[in-house]
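Severity: low
Component: inverse-folding endpoint
Summary: output formatting inconsistent between runs
Steps to reproduce: submit the following C-alpha cells with default settings.
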C-alpha cells in the first residue's frame, strides 16, 4: 500500500493557501504537507488534492458541491471529519480560501493536541 505523493507544484500551491496566522504550523506528512493549529490538523495535501477538516454541518454543505468528496488517503479508509475541496476550485482561490478559513476556525476551537511521546527502542 503506497501513499500518493505531492509534486513540487502541488506543494507550492498548498503553501500559498496556508493562512498567514501565527498559530498555524506546516509540516511534512507521508510525502505530502499538512497545516496544524494547536497541534490539530485542519488542512492537508495528498497528491494534487487538498482537504479541510470541518464540523458535521459544514461537511454536509461542502459535500453538496460538485467535485467535493469524503477524504480517503487510503482507498476505503475515509478520514471522517475531512472533505476534499473540488479540484475545479483551483481557479477560484477566494472560494478555496473561504473553506480553509472555516476549517482553521473549527480546528482552533478544539483542545490543544499534545505530541505523543516517542517510544524508545529496546536493546535486543
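Observed output (run 2 of 3):
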Amino acid at each position: 500500500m503506497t501513499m500518493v505523493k505531492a509534486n513540487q507544484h502541488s506543494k507550492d500551491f498548498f503553501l500559498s493557501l496556508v493562512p498567514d496566522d501565527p498559530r498555524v504550523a506546516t509540516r511534512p506528512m507521508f510525502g505530502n504537507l499538512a497545516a496544524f493549529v494547536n497541534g490539530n490538523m485542519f488542512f492537508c495535501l495528498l497528491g494534487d488534492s487538498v482537504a479541510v477538516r470541518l464540523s458535521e454541518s459544514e461537511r454536509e454543505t461542502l459535500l453538496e458541491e460538485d467535485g467535493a468528496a469524503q477524504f480517503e488517503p487510503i482507498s476505503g479508509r475515509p478520514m471522517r471529519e475531512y472533505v476534499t475541496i473540488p479540484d475545479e476550485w483551483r481557479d477560484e482561490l477566494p472560494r478555496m480560501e473561504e473553506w480553509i478559513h472555516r476549517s482553521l476556525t473549527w480546528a482552533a476551537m478544539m483542545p490543544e493536541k499534545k505530541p505523543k511521546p516517542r517510544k524508545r527502542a529496546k536493546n535486543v
